[in-house]
Design goal:
By secondary structure, this protein is mainly beta. It contains 2 helices and 12 strands. The longest helix has 13 residues, at 2-14. It starts with a helix and ends in a 21-residue tail after the last strand.
Length: 173
């Protein structure tokens, strides 16, 4: 019985996961929120890759109105999916940081035109960071490829402001 309890405790310790939120501000009113989960052990790596991610979802907005989303559970063999994340700085390295053509392909390739229809995707490459909506590159969403993009434990909103934790109770007069 003691061995069973010890095994259950050890498994519970290895099964914990970190949940991170992200918010990206693109050009001309385009934003994207997202959430990813990865094992706590991956948070000790030098560089997290897409194979470390256990859950992932992004949602795109234009002037605060939802324009699409993508969830890792929708991934097919044809889906563009690459991710680089530095857990020490809570940043997604840019293509220039990594000396690559593309650093992030979240249901959008380097041409930002393969997110499906309907569909949504995000790409960060050496030309720009931008989104794909319904199979189309959205040029107005493009921003400088070297723009730092952070993750956080804090909740985020579609306008990319972190939301402070609210009190669980209020004192009534």
């Amino acid at each position: 019985m003691q061995v069973l309890v010890a095994c259950m405790f050890a498994f519970a310790q290895t099964a914990t996961a970190a949940t991170l939120n992200m918010c990206w501000t693109g050009g001309n009113g385009y934003t994207m929120t997202g959430r990813m989960e990865l094992p706590d052990s991956a948070m000790r790596k030098t560089l997290v890759r897409e194979t470390d991610i256990t859950a992932f979802k992004i949602t795109g907005y234009f002037n605060g109105t939802r324009v699409g989303s993508w969830n890792l559970i929708e991934k097919t063999p044809e889906t563009s999916w690459s991710l680089y994340f530095d857990p020490a700085t809570f940043t997604f390295p840019t293509a220039i940081d990594l000396n690559r053509q593309v650093s992030q392909e979240w249901n959008a390739n380097g041409n930002v035109d393969d997110c499906g229809n309907p569909g949504f995707g995000f790409n960060a490459g050496n030309f720009a960071q931008d989104v794909c909506i319904n199979g189309q590159y959205i040029e107005p969403s493009s921003i400088d490829p070297e723009t730092t993009f952070f993750a956080t434990y804090d909740p985020v909103t579609p306008d990319c402001r972190s939301v402070a934790a609210l009190s669980k109770s209020r004192i009534q007069p």
